[in-house]
Design a protein that fits this description.
This protein is α/β, with parallel strands linked by helices. Helices cover about 25% and strands about 20% of the residues. Bound molecules: beta-D-glucopyranose.
């Protein structure tokens, strides 16, 4: 009955749209009733759609003119954007208008990019260890996304740092599944609070770029579930993303976007994911295998060889290669997310003239201030002392601004000239260039906060820089490592002459502080020769101000490393990266070498001493932890500890709780991060904290039983100022337990 009635309405609407428009919305379009559940609304709407219309909403186009692929963007699709799926006016289905990415509203390379606010890199936000900053940042980019006319934001990168040279590490949340998943999940939640769908990406094991189209990531089921997949699982639980984007690479032989294990079994069955899976741009390789393995939407045509989800999908359904039930499931998933996140009830349009850039500058600045990590502070060289009369600032275009990471996630900064570039002509001519600096100048920030004279030298001539250093009270070198999508860094050294420059400058004046703007970990051959090191990552569009505030002491640094900084690439599971392959020679990336022992877990297991450990981060005050205790709880282990600011200035303490299992438990490594917290404390203030260790972080995955299992025994619980500096342990006894997969 219902179907017939709705098809009648649909047919009428097609024949004469005016008739449909004249109907009151609630009877003509019952799916527009916000009181119904997203599932019910999706069902009602799907019943009113023709097969062709259904096909239309699972087939996405690129939203940028691409003459090299003989492609012009569709009418109504925004210029120089990531993707577009036309709406269906007669049914009130909005277009899906897709923008990159995780730090803000990006533009594909263009002479006239949209100029927007950018958060610090994903890695930087992870370095805050502060889910509330991640939420606020997500909410900010969600707002700019909708005000720019987008309703799908391709954010939420959470691939773990297995490969410190990965050109996209800056988009991700570091090497630990709990930290990365929690930060990313909160960013997604903030983003979607603006009724903009966020993706969670790139699912999964897309942990390097150079071979991303050809790599076949080999990983055992248990190792995968306890590492990268756990990060996705946690982010999914916290953020409930409308969509998950499957990645380019293969996983255990099958492309991620036609991988039954990843999509159907793990994501949809075990985690109960109710949203839709979209492919990365050019990551769909078939119609039937992809649809049956769980891919719901093809993205970014013409990046793929063929329009697999256009006519071919309709044919496959008519011929029975893809069941009608599966086809309906794809449609349901797309519509359900559009209803659940609020795309129907909160239509978008271009309101970019009204974006609150000043308000957003404050949000991104706060994120950057929480993210900056003080790594070395010999003799209290920082914060800048009042006695300092002359400061030499060297390199990194610090007179103009701060660096950002390259590729599809590139946000061009509000406040820049129309072409988005305050430093022209840097970086490759093609993708993932150009190099983009954000007009937030550390030099200007410093000048506003010190009576000392601040002199800038561009660092191109090491001799001249050293001469300036020699006659200055304090030297601050800005060192940069630009990384970008599609290509990994060739090594972990700072590029160009920067290592030599720092060595020369430090030789002239030991009171040298190096401020790093890098995608992730770098090696520091000059470390013993300098007095201070500050890791500022890619700090976003207010990054220069944030750096200046930390250097001057206006802000007490509280960032902690979300990744291990190795002493050399020889310490890595794969000192040499797999050789680049082509589309026929799929190189295997053997992630079983480290399995779930990613980052600090690998270093622990192998007894290696890194340059700086995971979790490291100094402060201008000091913190002390006491009264540590741990008890079993229904939902894992509950940990109590008191944290005190034992110094003379206010600061934010990061409490890191690590857990070790009895040897019989078969963990991948000696310890795991079990819980964390960031607490603001006035000088002398103490707070009692209660934290919970998620039971999955106490368990191993049993592939045969398809379940998490906790082994019986005594578990040791410690706090740490980093993964390499732990308190004495308390012990908690756990009984053997099997956890429901959900
Ligand atoms: C990237 C995705 C991005 C997409 C659209 C791809 O190359 O891997 O992260 O969302 O392009 O620009």
């Amino acid at each position: 009955m219902k179907t017939t009635f709705l098809s009648l309405i649909a047919a009428l609407a097609l024949a004469s749209p005016c008739v449909a428009e004249a109907q009151p919305a609630d009877t003509a379009q019952p799916w527009m009733n916000p009181a119904l559940s997203p599932d019910a609304r999706a069902d009602l709407l799907a019943q009113a759609m023709t097969a062709k219309e259904k096909q239309q909403i699972v087939f996405g186009y690129f939203s940028t003119d691409a003459p090299w692929m003989n492609f012009k963007r569709l009418d109504g699709s925004p210029a120089d954007a990531a993707g577009f799926i036309p709406g269906i006016a007669r049914l009130g289905i909005p277009a899906q208008v897709e923008s990159d990415a995780g730090v803000g509203v990006a533009t594909q390379r263009s002479a006239t990019p949209r100029l927007r606010s950018a958060l610090p890199s994903g890695m930087a936000t992870a370095a805050t260890w502060d889910p509330s900053l991640a939420f606020a940042g997500g909410a900010m980019i969600g707002n700019e996304s909708r005000m720019s006319g987008f309703n799908v934001q391709l954010a939420g990168g959470v691939d773990l740092v297995r490969e410190p040279r990965n050109g996209r590490n800056f988009e991700y949340g570091g090497e630990d599944p709990l930290l990365a998943g929690t930060i990313d999940g909160n960013e997604i939640k903030g983003l979607q609070s603006n009724h903009v769908i966020s993706t969670l990406k790139h699912y999964a094991f897309n942990d390097e770029e150079t071979n991303r189209f050809t790599a076949d990531a080999k990983i055992g089921e248990a190792a995968g579930r306890q590492s990268d997949l756990l990060a996705f699982e946690i982010a999914n639980e916290i953020g409930s993303p409308g969509s998950v984007m499957c990645s380019y690479n293969r996983v255990n032989g099958a492309y991620a976007c036609e991988n039954d294990w990843l999509l159907n079994k793990v994501l949809k069955q075990d985690w109960g994911f109710k949203g839709y899976v979209m492919s990365d741009w050019g990551a769909t390789h078939s119609t039937v295998p992809a649809a049956n393995a769980g891919l719901d939407q093809q993205s970014g045509y013409p990046f793929d060889v063929s329009p697999y989800y256009s006519e071919a999908l309709g044919e496959a359904v008519r011929d029975g290669w893809v069941s009608r039930a599966r086809f309906d499931d794809m449609i349901h998933r797309v519509l359900r997310s559009m209803f659940a996140v609020g795309l129907f009830d909160n239509p978008v349009s271009d309101q970019s003239a009204n974006i609150d850039y000043a308000g957003h500058a404050a949000v991104t600045q706060k994120d950057a201030e929480g993210a900056i990590v003080l790594l070395k502070n010999e003799g209290g060289v920082l914060p800048l002392a009042k006695s300092v009369r002359s400061v030499a600032v060297i390199g990194g275009h610090a007179d103009v601004g701060v660096l950002s990471g390259g590729g599809s996630s590139q946000v061009y900064p509000h406040g820049a000239p129309a072409n988005g570039l305050v430093v022209p002509n840097e970086g490759p001519d093609g993708f993932p260039g150009p190099m983009v600096w954000y007009p937030s100048s550390p030099v200007n920030g410093l000048k506003a906060r010190t009576h000392a004279t601040v002199t800038y030298n561009d660092g191109k001539d090491a001799k001249a820089a050293a001469a300036l250093a020699a006659k200055s009270d304090l030297v601050i070198v800005f060192a940069t490592q630009w990384t970008g999508e599609s290509v990994d860094a060739k090594d972990l050294n700072l590029p160009g002459n920067q290592d030599a420059l720092i060595a020369a400058v430090a030789k002239a004046n030991r009171k040298t502080v190096v401020v790093l703007e890098t995608g992730g970990a770098v090696i520091m051959p000059w470390l013993d020769k300098v007095s201070g090191v500050v890791e500022a990552w890619y700090p976003g569009t207010s990054g220069g101000e944030a750096i200046a505030r930390v250097l001057s002491g206006e802000v007490n640094p509280s960032g902690h490393l979300p990744v291990t900084f190795p002493a050399s690439v020889d310490q890595l599971p794969r000192p040499q990266q797999p050789v680049a392959g082509d589309k026929t020679g799929h190189p295997n990336v053997d992630y079983d070498i480290e399995g779930a022992a990613v980052g600090y877990k690998w270093f622990d297991k192998k007894g290696l001493k890194p340059l700086f450990p995971f979790g490291q981060g100094l402060s201008y005050t000091s913190f002390a932890w006491s009264k540590l205790s741990a008890q079993t709880a229904a939902n894992g282990v509950s940990v109590s500890v008191t944290v005190k600011n034992a110094g003379a200035v206010a600061g934010n303490a990061v409490t890191q709780v690590y857990v070790s299992a009895p040897a019989t438990a078969g963990w991948e490594a000696p310890k795991r991060l079990g819980a964390f917290d960031k607490t603001a404390l006035a000088a002398g203030e103490a707070k009692a904290l209660s934290l919970t260790v998620d039971p999955r972080l106490l368990a191993t995955w049993d592939p045969a039983a398809r379940a998490w299992k906790i082994a019986a025994g005594d578990y040791r619980v410690m706090t740490g100022t980093s993964a390499a500096d732990l308190s004495p342990a308390v012990t908690v006894h756990l009984d053997a337990r099997t956890l429901d997969v959900k």
